[in-house]
Amino acid sequence: MATSVRSVRVVPYERDFAAWAEAQAEALRAGRLDALDLVHLAEEIADLINRERDALESHLETLLLHLLKWRYQPARRSRSWEATIKVARRNVAKLLRRSPSLRPGLGASLNEIWPNARTRAAVATRLPENAFPELCPFTLDQVTGEWLP
C-alpha cells in the first residue's frame, strides 16, 4: 500500500502572513520539515512571549490606572471602575495561569509600566502628575489581590 505525500503550499512570509502561518502549520502537521521556513518560524515563536508579556502589562497598566483613580478620586468612584479593576485582575490571573513563567517578572513589569499608569491617571483625573508617587505605592499582592485603596 502506497502512502500519499501531501503537497504543502509555499507562501512567502512577506506577502501574506496569515497564509504563511497556515502553510507552516500544515507542513508541521504533515511532518514536512523540509517545507518549513525555519528563520521566520523561529522569529514568530520567539515573539509569542513578547505578545503574552505585552498583554499582561496592558492589563496591569489598566489595573494601576483604576486603582489610582479609586484612591485619588473617592467621590467619583463608580461601579464601572470597580468592574474594570475586577476584570483586569481576572485577565492578569488568566494570563499567569496560561504562562506561569511570566510570574517571576511581574514585579519588574509593575515598575516598568508605572510611569505610563501615572501619566494616564494624571490625564484621567486632571490632577498634576506630581500628585501621584514617582514609584508604585502598591505591592504586587495588593495589585493582583482583592484589595482596594
What features would you describe in this structure?
The protein has 5 helices and no strands. It is mainly α and 149 residues long. It has a domain at 52-144. It is elongated and about 60 Å long.
Topology readout:
Layout lengths: L16 H14 L7 H35 L6 H20 L7 H20 L14 H5 L5
Kindly, what is the distance between the CA atoms of the first and last residues, rounded to a whole number of angstroms? 71 Å
* DSSP strand content: under 5%
Structural class: mainly alpha
For the secondary structure, the number of strands is: 0
Radius of gyration: 22 Å
- The total of helices stands at 5
Biggest pleated-sheet summary = none
Overall 3D form: elongated
The percentage helix is 55-70%
Q: Give me the strand/helix succession.
A: HHHHH
Put the structure in a nutshell.
With 149 residues, this protein is mostly helical. The chain has five helices and no strands.
Descriptive key words:
5 helices; elongated; mainly alpha; 149 residues
